[in-house]
Amino acid sequence: MPLMTSLLSAYWTRSETLSGRKIAGILVGVLGTVLLFWPHERLGLQEALGMLAALAGCLCAAINLVTMKKYGRHSDPFVLNFLGMGFGAACLLAMSASIEDWGGAVWSRSNVLAIFYLSVFGSVIAFSTYYYLIKKMDATIVSLSTLIIPIVALVLGRAFLRETVTPIAIAGIATILAGVAVAIVPDAKIPSVSR
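The chain above was modelled as a monomer; its predicted structure follows.
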């Protein structure tokens, strides 16, 4: 997503400049993500289709991000969040009603708490913050957060589920962080010499 966002920001909305260091940092971050998620078995057709769907989702998210940056600058982040989440919830409920069996749903205490947590912290707070950051920062810098999310997931998986963290995953984490660091360092300003 950061690569798509930077290209769209530079060539479609023309709201950002594209420096070599920014592209290099993003590519290093992508390399780290590849290391982090490198499959241990051969990829089949289903996995390849899943990857294509994920790339299509990234493109849609990048288009949304650069469009919001250019045209949503004066919009209220809470209103944007309400409209987006409300429309998304309506679409998901309609799709769920048409293709899923609701009789198998289990309304246990832990399931209800998980829904509450995801609704409040994973949606309302997270996306309100996201839209606020879009107004204050370059779209490419905001999109770099997508490179950090897998690291957080890996750390939480290790802490709470005792998942194994391989040496390649650690190398991936280090590479992602290095890429993000390279991408966010501002371009050096060359002082003008007065005559």
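The radius of gyration is 20 Å.
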